[in-house]
Amino acid sequence: MNAHEIDYRIFGEEMQYVEIELDPQEGVVAESGSFMMMDSDVKMNTIFGDGSNQEKGLLGKIFSAGKRILTGESLFMTVFTNVGYGKKQVSFASPYPGKIIPVDLTEFGGKFICQKNAFLCAAKGVSIGIEFSKKLGRGLFGGEGFIMQKMEGDGMGFIHAGGTMAKKVLRPGEILKIDTGCIVGFTQEVAYDIEFVGGIKNTIFGGEGLFFASLKGPGTVYVQSLPFSRLAGRILSMAPQTGSGDRGEGSVLGGIGDLLDGDNRF
Fold first, then answer.
1. Cα–Cα distance for residue pair 256/62, rounded to 1 Å
2. What is the pLDDT of residue 86?
């Protein structure tokens, strides 16, 4: 498997985008909805799956693409190819505030595992597949379920983390406990399991869920401070209820009530 060798630059701080530089006939594959802009000689083409296994027959391609449904993604991906004569650029934007993380698969043994919605784009030739959990407890209570995404190959891939990203390099036997939603991805050597929080008060009143993710080294782990589910839940909790209008505007206290509350949760 030989992925295209692409160059890149990442721009921005809180709302980043990655600019991919393509030599003639080089390509990059991306999830639907991540495209931002491209030069005129870059051609866009929608394909089944990620296009990494073109030697397969039609049924093989359909089966390979169909597995993406299990991760909640579309059957199709988009390939952007430089059909011109000089270097051209195509850019992809992060879906919400956070950081774009470049992953060189050659540094991680040709495989990297990430949460289902973390993948942004990758060099053409990188395989975007699914990773099944082999442990029942992890699948039922691990936040990400039985299925995660994986990137395989020898090229560059890009994933997205919400909020601020932390990179942890674990020594052999070292254990890191993480909120299950805060995992972005990890290398294939990392042993991933779940652990019960423990304690009646922690379980009932802690508000942090019933389980931690337990990651055991050696290996590299990427952690995000703001999972999208947490961001969406916060926004949803503050949305006006049907027929009630805004929580602050039009109320008896109005802005004064907001000041008294401090976090606008009344």
1. 58
2. 92
